[in-house]
Amino acid sequence: MSGYTPGEQMNSPDVVKLNTNENPYAPSPRVFEAVADALNGQSLRKYPQPLGDTFRQAAGRVLNVDPDSILVGNGSDDILTILTRAFVPEGGRVAFPTPSYVLYKSLADIQGATSQTVPFTRDWTPPSPWPVRGAHLTYFANPNSPSGTILRREAIAQLAEQVGGPFVLDEAYAEFAEDNGLSLIGQLPDFVITRTFSKFYALAGLRFGMAIAEPKLIRELAKVKDSYNCDVLALAAATATIEDQEYYSDIRSRILATRGRMAVALTELGFAVTPSQTNFLWCRHPERPLKPIYEALKTKKILVRYMNYPDSGDGLRITVGSPKDIERLLTELAVILKQ
Amino acid sequence: MSGYTPGEQMNSPDVVKLNTNENPYAPSPRVFEAVADALNGQSLRKYPQPLGDTFRQAAGRVLNVDPDSILVGNGSDDILTILTRAFVPEGGRVAFPTPSYVLYKSLADIQGATSQTVPFTRDWTPPSPWPVRGAHLTYFANPNSPSGTILRREAIAQLAEQVGGPFVLDEAYAEFAEDNGLSLIGQLPDFVITRTFSKFYALAGLRFGMAIAEPKLIRELAKVKDSYNCDVLALAAATATIEDQEYYSDIRSRILATRGRMAVALTELGFAVTPSQTNFLWCRHPERPLKPIYEALKTKKILVRYMNYPDSGDGLRITVGSPKDIERLLTELAVILKQ
Lengths: 339, 339
Description:
The structure is a homodimer. By secondary structure, chain A is α/β, with parallel strands linked by helices. Helix content of chain A is 38%, strand content 18%. Chain A folds into two domains: 16-26 and 246-338, Aspartate Aminotransferase, domain 1 (Alpha-Beta Complex); 29-243, Type I PLP-dependent aspartate aminotransferase-like (Major domain) (Aspartate Aminotransferase, domain 2, 3-Layer(aba) Sandwich), CATH 3.40.640.10. Chain A has eleven helices and twelve strands. In chain A, the strands form two sheets. A seven-stranded mixed β-sheet of chain A has the order 2-8-7-6-5-3-4, with helices on both faces. In chain A, strands 1-11-12-10-9 form a five-stranded mixed β-sheet, sandwiched between helices.
């Protein structure tokens, strides 16, 4: 088994890092206050809240859901791991579309389960009817990575009904998108939404994510997680984060504005850019091979993600970074493409 | 499946909490500096080091082991989960002595494995020869909880050889003890030591633990963990912690001194106190039932752990708290026992 290989983490400050969809902006100032408040001997030496109840109350208010419908996780990878362990027996079957988040296959491999992949159609929709019946778990990233595309909630509801079994709607990028599946909670059995604080909320370094599902399902999932899977500083940060929607609304506007300009500029450079509902762009090029472009950018200390899928070919997934970083990317790309 | 039930977390400040073996002292002042340094927009918005290399270098120096022999974990529960998933198939068998850490059975249940428990002898040693052959994984807590007793490294080496398969030496309390198994790394195949920062290092709130084993085994275990299982603040705190052995040496002396006085006082109150190599005491009473004592303490807002094992009866596991908290405990116990 090879395990999941995360995106490269060249962290020297002069590297333009557009490969793991981190937020170019800092988290809310309230996060720093909340962590500083929680940073004391009493809170460090004692175990944290096992279920993160303070966070759940806050998130319940902001998202208008029952706090008991929320499970806290050490990143959404922890949540996806918990879901896989809860639903999938060894020798079981999981299903997911492809190309999508490559972690799904790693999770299945670790669990000793078989992965059944379903190719997206050319317009990044799943085939209808969905061809895999009886999977122990179906993962569906929406918006999807690497494409950045979404299905609307009505289409998600239809898909989940066709799947007819446990369904994970992985909404890692939902806060950048025009629609999400939150209103479907309670409408469909064994339907779980996962969210991360690593992308929109700019807390990749702090590891926080959550699942949202019916409370009776959350209670069962809680038995599978480590008792204290989220630490006291991450819980404090996540609570302050979700309560500061005003700050993040401003960040959203800035990132979407950069995304728009970036898509236009990349198109002018000859790329075929898939319209995105996320903080990244999926770029192909009808005339130029992509791997040399990725490698040339890397020599210029600009990291993007080169992805090559056996069934659908390759592309560059480029994070919407700060305006300055994107300017540098576009300048270098123009030089590379002239060669 | 019932899942693991962690110790009660009544966190109001007037509660004397002697039930989850937290350290009564704050972590090193260097921890606060290190977290404050790491608390900036750049480190929060970016993913942390996947393998915690800065910590591994520091811990390698302090423990005099190869940094590549260290796996970082989100608490030692995360490490124990990773080990279970790596070694134990569904329908597999795990073995461990009893009474011991009750999480082992929960981990086996989640994995769909069978638990084979081996009763300790009356002097808290394992039966020799060890009676379970062919387990996929054997857990052995050393020092053990709830007893606080240890086996010396020579006895551990003999036991691991008799077990003849993957062996986890769970050293959650090793820093309080007179001996540990670190020198056995590399001497025995599939031999893993786990450590936590929740007890001796006073970082229960921050979730940090580690595995120590041969580098080739650590590389395999790393494939099973979540890619970014430790956050940037916990990694910074853990690094500062392990580098400040002087501070913790002082804490050790204070806790061991309190433990000594506490054992004498509890014995004078009529308890049978098992000699401890940890930061807690296992107490029975030849004349008085223990559950009413636990309950009477709870009404006085003093939490200890009442444990009742089907094969070996019940007892109170009492954390070595601050001198002030232990004084309050002893005062209340004297009153309760007079009734």
